[in-house]
Design brief:
CATH topology of the largest domain: Arc Repressor Mutant, subunit A
Oligomer: single chain
CATH superfamily of the largest domain: Winged helix-like DNA-binding domain superfamily/Winged helix DNA-binding domain
Number of helices: 4
CATH class of the largest domain: Mainly Alpha
Strand content: under 5%
Largest sheet: none
Order of helices and strands: HHHH
Radius of gyration: 24 Å
């Protein structure tokens, strides 16, 4: 994963990119970031502002947390099923 830039920095670059006075390539050179990063930041800002459809940063973060929690619950469920099977084989029917 690439280097994380502070939100204020990204917001400043997005603001300048949206003004349209400077090309992304020049902004990238001036700020020491890649053109792709600027493109992605502008795209995400458009989504967050409701200009473009997609997941906002908050929704994406929530989705990551839900997926992480789901993975943990699936692992716990698997452990419990294995433990139940282990103990069930020791119990003989009468």
């Amino acid at each position: 994963m690439g280097k994380r830039y502070p939100k204020e920095f990204r917001d400043d670059v997005v603001r300048l990119a949206r003004q349209g006075d400077t090309q992304y390539s020049q902004l990238a050179e001036d700020f020491g970031v890649s053109e792709a990063s600027i493109y992605n930041w502008v795209k995400q800002a458009d989504i967050d502002d409701g200009v473009r459809p997609g997941l906002t940063e908050a929704e994406a973060e929530e989705l990551r947390e839900v997926k992480k929690r789901n993975r943990v619950l699936e692992e716990e469920n698997l452990i419990l099923r294995r433990a139940a099977a282990f103990f069930a084989k020791d119990i003989s029917p009468k």
